[in-house]
Design a protein that fits this description.
The chain is of the alpha/beta class. The chain has a single domain, classed as 3-Layer(aba) Sandwich (Rossmann fold). The protein has 4 helices and 6 strands, in the order βαβαβαβαββ. The protein has a 6-stranded mixed beta sheet with strand order 3-2-4-1-5-6, with helices on both faces. α2 links the parallel β2 and β3. α1 packs parallel to α2. It is globular, with a radius of gyration of 15 Å. The termini are far apart.
């Protein structure tokens, strides 16, 4: 059994309109939400063996917050250029090459690709993975190369404002 945890980067800062999209950092809410979501996963006893992230600044920083919560270092995060604004098919190719010694992967990327990919995995459909949102599935396979064809089941969906009353 393999577990895939998809994480959309936390809220980004749009304060500098001239800044290249790739270089946009997290805003204050993003810096607050990412560690909160990482801790929620820890509290739920969600295991993460490997961290794979887009190298875009906002996704990389989100991954770093999660890695820190799991007592990992920045060097433990594998950065994949292809995850920057990735199409759903790109996720499958990256997952297929993951090390089989890892039973659970967390992938940090961007919309719309991450939501579109999540909606391809199980009958569970969501309109949008919000910033710092997490969508998780379990797959009946022993090798990541078999993930695409494997039977998958929805595990959970969580995001910063879930259960928060206005």
């Amino acid at each position: 059994m393999k577990t895939l945890i998809l994480v959309r980067h936390a809220k980004s800062d749009w304060g500098n309109p001239g800044l290249d999209d790739f270089d946009r950092p997290l805003n204050e809410r993003g810096k607050k939400d990412a560690p909160v979501m990482a801790q929620r996963l820890r509290d739920k006893k969600v295991k993460i063996d490997a961290f794979i992230a887009s190298p875009a600044k906002r996704a990389a920083k989100t991954a770093k917050f999660f890695a820190e919560a799991y007592n990992k270092k920045k060097d433990d995060i594998e950065f994949k250029e292809k995850l920057y604004l990735a199409e759903p098919t790109t996720f499958f190719s990256i997952i297929a090459t993951a090390n089989d010694k890892h039973d659970s992967l967390a992938i940090f990327s961007h919309n719309y690709g991450i939501t579109d990919f999540a909606n391809m995995l199980t009958p569970t459909r969501i309109d949008n993975i919000p910033t710092a949102g997490v969508f998780a599935v379990k797959a009946d396979c022993e090798k990541w190369a078999d993930f695409k064809a494997a039977q998958k089941e929805f595990w959970f969906f969580d995001y910063p404002k879930a259960g928060v009353k206005d």
